[in-house]
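Reviewer 2 asked us to include a model.

Predict the structure of this chain.
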Amino acid sequence: MDFPYEIPLPVALAVIAVLGYLAGRSSRAQARSEADKARRELRRAKAVAKELEQIAESVRKQLAAHHTSVARFKDRVSELSGQDNEMAWTDLCREAEQILKPTLRLAEQISRAYDEIRQQSNHLMSFTEVRTDPLTRVSNRRGLDESLEARFALLDRYEQPFSLAIFDIDHFKQVNDSHGNLHGDRTLQAVARILDDTVRDTDVVARYGGEEFVVVMAMTTLDNACQFGERVRSLVETNLGLTISGGVAMALDGDNPQSLLSRADEALYGSKAAGRNRIYRHTGTGIEPAETASEPSAAAV
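Predicted model (structure tokens):
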């Protein structure tokens, strides 16, 4: 097919060069994004491995001490065999009781170590594609549900506190309507990146749905979680030029994943009703602004 106009060779070469540059820049940006994700996952995997190592070392020390106590008790039994010394046997019974108490503690520690290992295993599994939101590369709803299940197990058995925050991008529909869905996707990715860079390696960031994100914070009080929420809100506003609202709640006795999410969601709607671009918290009996938090420390207890 003949074209009615011929494109001058220099112009054609320039067009090819520009297209090649744009394609290369896009490829480099995607490669950087994948590299950043890989580095984050590697950093978290190292943190998980370190925790598993600490758990194993603690159990090893307890088992060694227990083995020494049992061996000593066995020697005493051998010494008293064939003797009819009532006082000696009374002392031996007392020693048996003294061994039994640390044995029970050791059994509890091993059970606790098992639960913690299962929690860390779930955290490692959250890196897999089936538990990852394809757009933002943070956990998806399935990863969130599994993390909450593990956290509640640790809370019920060992009273390990944790808190949860829900963040919602303010006026996100206007972002899509004004700038297009592609810009909206980039906004979601940028917010997810801020969250992912701000949390600790043992915390979990998940896309809850649409423009909402959830952060599960291990070993974190309500006040500390509020301070974390304020820090995230400020970072988003400063770096992205948009605002988010948040709701924070701490897991309480009698809570389950649904009730905890519901209380955090109620606090989120409180922040929306109060004018957006703020963080509210649910105390267990009602909602209030997060500014009432008084502890000076960061998110972790």
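The two ends are 73 Å apart (CA to CA). The chain has two domains: 33-125, 138-292. We have added this to the supplementary material.
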